[in-house]
Amino acid sequence: MNAQAPGSVRVIEVSDDFGRKARASGGVPRDAAIKRALEMLISVRPPLADYVDDQCRRLETTLLAARARRGDYGALIAVAYAAAQNIRDVADPAGQSLAGFIAGNLCTVIETAADAGMEYPAAIIDCHCDALRLAHTPAFAGKTIKELPELSAGLAETAQMTKALAARHTHQPAVNT
After folding, report:
1. What is the CATH number of the domain that holds 153?
2. Could you tell me if residue 162 is inside a domain?
3. Residue 104 in contact with residue 88, Cβ under 8 Å?
């Protein structure tokens, strides 16, 4: 058992090169570094949000084209997958964590279908497109996934459904994660 009082903090000194440099004299004080980092994050947030919006449009456009079988289906899914990865990777710092969650879940769906060598589940992908559109409405802008438990549970269920479909397609038991 730890004998520390609740709420107390134990500082562990790191004795590697980075730790020594961080404690060296002449550096930026911690509070100033945090303030500067927050200012930088605030300054990059609008361009990041624009980037997420652009990637959402790209994702929707390519998925609709794939659904309508316009062009090379596999190439369109690859472009959609790349857009979903881009959204997933930068949505949180852009203040769009809901879009990031939806895109991350869509990545899982696409990966699962690809790994099983099966047709991409159109209804499940459509569901994610609808959820992304919803995430960009004024009523849902800035919401986190914790504020929308029904949506998160529903999207997680679609990923499980895709895994079950993939297991049936490859004749293997589904793995719950």
Report:
1. 1.20.120
2. yes
3. yes
101, with CB counted inside 10 A (0-12, 13-18, 19+), is: buried
Say how many C-beta atoms besides its own lie within 10 A of residue 87's C-beta: 29
**pTM here?**
0.74
Q: Which of 54, 63, 98, 67 is nearest to 81 (CA)?
A: 63
Domains identified in the chain, total number: 1
Range of the domain at 141: 45-170
Instruction: Express each pLDDT in 126-148 by its tens digit.
Output: 899 899 999 989 998 888 888 99
Q: 19: Cβ–Cβ under 8 A, 6 or more apart, which residues?
A: 13
In a domain, 20, yes or no: no
* Token duo for residue 62: 């390519």
Amino acid at site 147: E
In a domain, 108, yes or no: yes
Query: CA triplet 133, 114, 168: central angle to 5 degrees?
Result: 105
